What does this fold into?
Amino acid sequence: MQKVPELVSDFNSAPRLAIVALETRVAELEAALAARDIFIATAAHELRNPMTPVIGMVEATLAAARAGTCKPEQLVYRLELIQQSVSHFWRRAEVVLNVARINAGNLQLDSEPVDLTTLMGEVVEAFAGVARRSSVHVTLVVAPGLAGSWDRMALGQILENLLSNALKYGDRTPIKLTAEIEGAHLRLAVRDHGKGLPAADREKLFGRFERAIGRGEGGGFGVGLWLVRQLAEAMGGNVQVADAPGGGALFTVTLPLQMRKSIP
It folds into this structure.
């Protein structure tokens, strides 16, 4: 008979526990919806920005061409600027698309031969203007002809997001990109010489819509490093961040040299 009160107590507490669990779940869903809304608003802002100068340059170039006042070298220069802005827009659009695909469980990666030396050179060149305007020296160290089998677009986005992150948060210090083969794996590293990261904040960097304390300045979606981790893991690899020797942050991505044919 002494156990009856305990049974009654357990029975009475069950609804309360269910309510607490339900309230917790509702709070989580509300936070997720709020984060989604912020991301959508940020995406609209970030996708609109690079289009503003493109429209202006196209209109100015058309007006000059129609008036016959645009010299060939001026036309080439303006078209190069337009090309850079469109490429910037394309990279941002790919981020949005991949976030949506991952959230929906529809990310499709295909393995194909990739000349990593060429790809890394293209990524560095794509950010040359940003680096130059920020007075940041970017060094690329990769052996000629280094190649493997990966999803080219996913690998390019990993490199772009890591380089973009270093340019934004590396305190305008020199940046170094390296790639080397270690056994059956590729090791990519991007390091800056900035303030580095407190150990307690490192894991936050890879959260969706998260930035570590003190690194919230600048534009962007807040999903770049989260996307790096998602894409690296989808290709069978991983990403780590640590203090670089001598100061700064060191991001390291490890991938198998041969990604299997298709990963849904």
Residues 132 and 138 are 9 Å apart (CA to CA). Confidence is low (pLDDT under 50) at residues 211-221. The first helix runs from residue 4 to 48. Strands lie at 109-110, 112-115, 138-142, 147-150, 175-182, 185-191, 238-243, 249-256, 262-263.
